[in-house]
């Protein structure tokens, strides 16, 4: 015997395939309302059973229809919503690796309860995360200078080069072009130099001063010369009163250059001023102590902070210095100022946006810290921790106010980048470069106009031992 209610439900189900579940519920309700008039007479116990059967059938039909409808799909983040891709497979567990080839009309294989698989964020590799290779120098160089020109190129001059099984100073120079990533030769200097300084003048020329005599270490160079980017040539200019190597040269606000300290067999406390308008050096006040391999930087008020270094036997024993002093161009005198927490030699100094100065690293002494000098207080504050054994190559202030320090490590052999945040007084590692690129000790670095940093030179291992390297790399902050 046929069941009129079952027949009517099947009829309704066939007529509403594809309808929304809300319309199904309305149609089932109407079917239930009309069912009693179409049923034949039954025993008194059957009406209750019939109502139960009808209710169960309605629930089953609703579930079937809802399963036939299009299921929501997860977005790549596992969130179901209008932006989710319509091509994802509606399986019970959604993950980013799910195949996108499933069609929306495919039959469901499981209840579409989406439980996205969480994925861990990628962990950046600490090796070479911010470094990239660039062109090689035309000549392997150890200890050259690298100076950013006003047109964006970098002048690389002098240093030590391989001469058979030994090394000797060179007069050659070359230019790095960031637009092409290549080095090309330019005019040679009038004197071969190593341990010299190179300073960009306000008119765009570069002043090259002093340098070491590698034959016996005595009688270092007094000479100086100018490089003109417009002609690609070096020309001699005035000479200093004293030969110097490992000195500092700081461009003053009036365009003159302060050349201070250095060595000429022993540490020097004397200083001289170069005037580009006359092409001559004139003596100025002497430092409070002899210094070489020290740090110097121009302060916001026009004075120059000179910190650390070594006296090299001029006064007291050999060893790094913790003392610092200030040069005032208006008086031509040096005066002592606060001392650092510990001695530093071969440190770098860079002014921060708030007027303070970060003095970082040091080959000898506290190579795991950086000192902060406050010109207003005339004192150094508590030091900040840095990478163990950091020997800095370059320090510069980024547009956001943080200080970027690049250097090699005494214990790791690679180059590391660290950021100092004056707002939090914390140092964080910002990438590293292993020595596989050929760069080892003695590298130099130059900040480019686009914010990248060019790292080059040094030595690399060869069959003849350590030789000057042609390698170069770019760091992207």
CATH architecture of the largest domain: 6 Propeller
Shape: globular
The description of the largest β-sheet is: 5 strands, antiparallel
Mean pLDDT: 75
DSSP strand count: 33
The parts where pLDDT drops under 50 for at least 5 residues are 15-54, 56-128
Distance between the termini: 84 Å
Q: Could you say which structural class the secondary elements and strand pairing correspond to?
A: mainly beta
Our count of helices gives 3
- Rg measurement, Å: 38 Å
By CATH, the superfamily of the largest domain comes out as Kelch-type beta propeller
Helical percent range? 10-25%
Residues in β-strands, percent: 25-35%
Architecture overview:
It contains three helices and 33 strands. Strands 20, 21, 22, 23 and 24 form a five-stranded antiparallel sheet that branches. Helix 1 packs parallel to helix 3 and helix 2 runs antiparallel to helix 3. With 477 residues, the protein is mainly β.
Write the layout of secondary structure elements.
Layout: H1 4-15, H2 21-38, H3 46-68, E1 131-133, E2 145-148, E3 154-157, E4 160-163, E5 166-169, E6 173-177, E7 182-186, E8 197-200, E9 206-209, E10 224-228, E11 233-237, E12 248-251, E13 257-260, E14 271-275, E15 280-284, E16 295-298, E17 304-307, E18 324-328, E19 333-337, E20 348-351, E21 357-360, E22 369-374, E23 379-380, E24 384-385, E25 390-397, E26 403-409, E27 415-421, E28 426-433, E29 444-447, E30 453-456, E31 459-462, E32 465-468, E33 472-475
Antiparallel strand pairs: 1-33, 2-3, 3-6, 4-5, 6-7, 8-9, 9-10, 10-11, 12-13, 13-14, 14-15, 16-17, 17-18, 18-19, 20-21, 21-22, 22-23, 22-24, 25-26, 26-27, 27-28, 29-30, 30-33, 31-32
Helix pairs in contact: 1-2, 1-3, 2-3
